[in-house]
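Researcher: Next entry: DNA repair protein RecN (Tenacibaculum platacis).
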Amino acid sequence: MLHHLSIQNYALIDELSINFSDGLSIITGETGSGKSILLGALGLVLGNRADLSSLKNNESKCIIEAEFDLTAYALQVFFEKNDLDYEDKTIIRREILPSGKSRAFVNDTPVILSVLGELKSKLVDIHSQHQTLQLSDSLFQFSVIDALAKNDKRVASYKRGLRKYNLLAKELRALQENQENENQQYEYNLHLFKELEEADFQENEQQDLEAKLDVLNNVEDIKTSLSEALQITTSEEVGAQNLLYSLENALQKISTFSKEYEDLYNRVASIKIELDDVAAELERSNESIEFNPNELEIVNERLQLMYSLQKKHQVGSLEELVVIHQQLAEKVGGVENASEIIDKKQQEVNDVAKKLDEVALLISNQRNKAIPKLKKELEFLLSELGMPNARFSIEIKPSENYLSNGKDELVFLFSANKGGNFGELKKVASGGELSRIMLSIKKILSENTKLPTIIFDEIDTGVSGEVSNKIAYIMQEMSKYMQVIAITHLPQIASKGQAHYKVFKEDKNGKTASNLKLLSNDERVVEIAEMLSGKDISESALTHAKELLN
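Model: Predicted structure:
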């Protein structure tokens, strides 16, 4: 509920600070006294657009601050979502600077206007004769029916399921589209895959083959060099082995004479062992090397296949070709396994759809049970408000589509006159009738759901007599469940409030300013008497005012 409102330098208001109570509060005042200014200030602090015309004094900033008691509104999640500090007593402040810039704060944390706008819908409902368009909106009509049907948890569950369903359906469509695209490429990808599969390239095969090809292309030179090396090593007269053998014998004879000669002998003996090993390897290599045209052809063909496939796939190495082989395997396998994947995803969609259908049916059943009660209450209240022949035709039709709040389509028709045809509210109801219908709906909602503070802005225009008493009674009933503030010009309604505020203008230092004050009991009698008879208050008007207040 709105607990406190303070205004500085706004429109005709220099400075104003006022507390509000729960229950029914009344605001009265002469035409032009500034009642609309109060609503403008409240709208401004809750996110409405502002400009320099909002400032009374263009050299000072405008500050509007509203304190709300949020205890009963369960807004902790909203505050967490928007990274705001939650307080049961939350203060919202709006500042408009002389430069035209504005700032907004919630519990001293800066916020953007869109956050304020979202918060506004949870805190204050300003209702006037001109704000009845939502009566023709099917979502609003459904919200009324669902309030009576106690469908809030079911609808919330349905909406969670619908989000999941839409996500899964989107994933399914993506899989199906991907399969269609992949199917078009499947044959070609399969050909490329099989080509690489049959090639069966091994790790480092390219380097090994290129080295082998180098040997095969130079086999004669290699054979000659190996023979020459073998001759140099093993010749009986001048071969390295024979000379090294002689050197070893010579050093062996003196190796016992000193450590130095012994080390020399050991080193030569080690060299001889290594040379003997080299000679044996030279002999093996020389015997194994030979020109083989068939092997050369096989190696050439293998390398040419490798080079050809690398060129085809626009890569420069065998490693990259192996990666492409793996990618093709995934694409081909993906298409071949796609049906199974799609079937699995389709089953997930079907499972969620089944649960959605079950919840939607529960919602629909509860709506059908609530509709007769809604019709009865609406028609009774409208009869009390001077519309005895008002009738509603409310019907729910099942839909095949998953809508935002269930699987129902709503036909919500109205007739104001006896024997009249039913039609859409916006087409057959006048402005005054729409205002009374909205008042009746808000009264029903107040008893069945938690509504924010509601401000009735002269919805009693054009109403008098017994109907005004009924409007006042309805507002009193609503105020048992929520904070109600009514701006009115009717004494019958003004007398029913638990608190009564008066908006008035006064001249200060040659300038006109608007102000608001809470009336005492005596002041309230005078105010209502003035509403009854005008400025010249008669004794009978005072008596009547006291009777109304009693």
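Model: Note for the record: The mean pLDDT is 87.
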